[in-house]
Amino acid sequence: MDAIDRLLRRQAGVVSRRQVLAAGMSEVLVARRVRRREWVRVGDGVYVDHTGRLSTAQEEWAALLLHPGSVLAGRSALRAGGSRAGWSCGGDGWDRERRVVEIAVPHGRRLDAVPGVRAVQLRGLDAAALPRASPPRLRVEHAALMVASRARGDDEAVAVLADVVREGLTVPARLEDVLVEQRRLPRRRLLLDVVRDVESGAESPLERRYLRDVERRHALPRGVRQAWDAVAGRAVFRDVRYSAYRTNIELDGRLGHSRALDRWADLERDLEAAARGDVTLRIGWQQVLEPCRLAVTVGGVLALRGWTGPPTACGAACGMRPEGVS
User: Which residues contact 62 (CB under 8 A, 6 or more apart)?
Assistant: First the structure.
C-alpha cells in the first residue's frame, strides 16, 4: 500500500488498474475500493481517489494513464512545466482550450477519440519528451514551438516564445536548435524570425513589431534592447535606447487602464530622464500599427538630436512619404 500511496501522491490522486496490480493489489481489493466510492472510475481502468470534480492536473494524469506511453504536449506540457505561455489569448477560445488535455504519441500510433483530449502524432518523440518527468511531457522547447506554430497570429506566436524565455525555462539558442530540426513545422520561417528577434532582446509582440516594422524596415538607427539605466538611484531597463541620441523608447502593450501607481512610476522615470537631457517616447499599439508614420516621428526626434538619417521608405506603398524621407 505504501507504493500505491506514493503513486497517488505523485499522480495527483489518479492511478491505473495496471499500476496497482503491478504494485501488489488484488482485483478484489480494487473492486472493493470502487464499490465503496473510495476510488471513482474516470476511464477504462483509471481511477481517482475522490468523488468530486477533477482538477486540471488530474485530467492530465487520467489522459496519460488511459494512453500508456503518451506525454503531455502543447499548452498542457507548458502548464505542467510551470509556464503561463500560450494562455494569454483570453476570451471564449481560451476557456475552451484550457479544458482540452493535449498529449503526444509516437508517429503512426492512432488513438480512439476521447472527449476533452487532443492527441498528436510526433516523429522523434523519444528525443522530444521527458518521460520521467511528473507528469511526463514534451520538453519546453518542443511544447512552446507546437503552441506558437498554431497561434492565431504573429503576435501570439512571439508571445509564447518570449514568455518561456522570460520565465527562464529555456533560451533562444535551444529553441532555434529544435526549429532547425523540425523542417515541416507550420510557420517555421516566421518562428525562426521570432526566435532571433527574442534573442536580440525583443521581449513582447509589441517590441517585435517595433523592431521589425518601424526600426528595421525604415532604416532607423539600431537601438539597444532592454538597456540598463539608473533613475533616482534605482536600476531600470529601457525597452529601446538610442544612446548616441539620448532617446528612450518605452513600448506599452497593456490593454485597458493600467494601475495608477504603475502609470505614475512611468511618468516619474520620464521626468528623471528629461532632467538629465534624455527624451522618452512612450509608444503603444495604436502607434506601432501605423509603422510608417511612427518611423517618421521617431526619425524626426532622432534627427533633432544629431542623427543624420533620414528614415527610408519601406516600399512603394509606404504609408508616409513626407519631405526628407527617401
Answer: 14, 42, 43, 46, 48, 54
Rounded Cα distance between 291 and 136, Å, is 44
Name the CATH code of domain 206-304 (choices 3.90.180.10, 1.20.1740.10, 3.40.1830.10, 3.40.960.10).
3.40.960.10
Three cell numbers, residue 250: 518605452
3-state helix, strand, coil in the chain (%, to 5): 45, 15, 35
Q: What percent of the chain has pLDDT over 90?
A: 56
Distance CA 181, CA 78 (A): 20
* CB proximity list for 103: less than 8 A, separation 6 or greater: 63, 64, 67, 70, 71, 72, 73, 76, 117, 118, 119, 120
Which one-letter DSSP state was computed for residue 192? Answer: H
pLDDT score at 232: 63
Question: What residue ranges of the chain are covered by domains with CATH 3.40.960.10?
Answer: 206-304
- Average pLDDT rounded to a whole number, residues 229-244: 82
Map residue 116 onto helix, strand or coil.
Answer: coil
> Comparing 70-74, 214-218, 255-259, which segment has the lowest mean pLDDT?
255-259
The arithmetic mean of pLDDT across residues 80-98, rounded, is 62
Q: Is the peptide bond before 115 cis (omega within 30 degrees of 0)?
A: no
In angstroms, rounded to a whole number, what is the distance separating the alpha carbons of residues 94 and 86? Answer: 9
**Dist CA 11 CA 65 (whole Å):** 10
Q: Would the pTM count as exceeding 0.85?
A: no
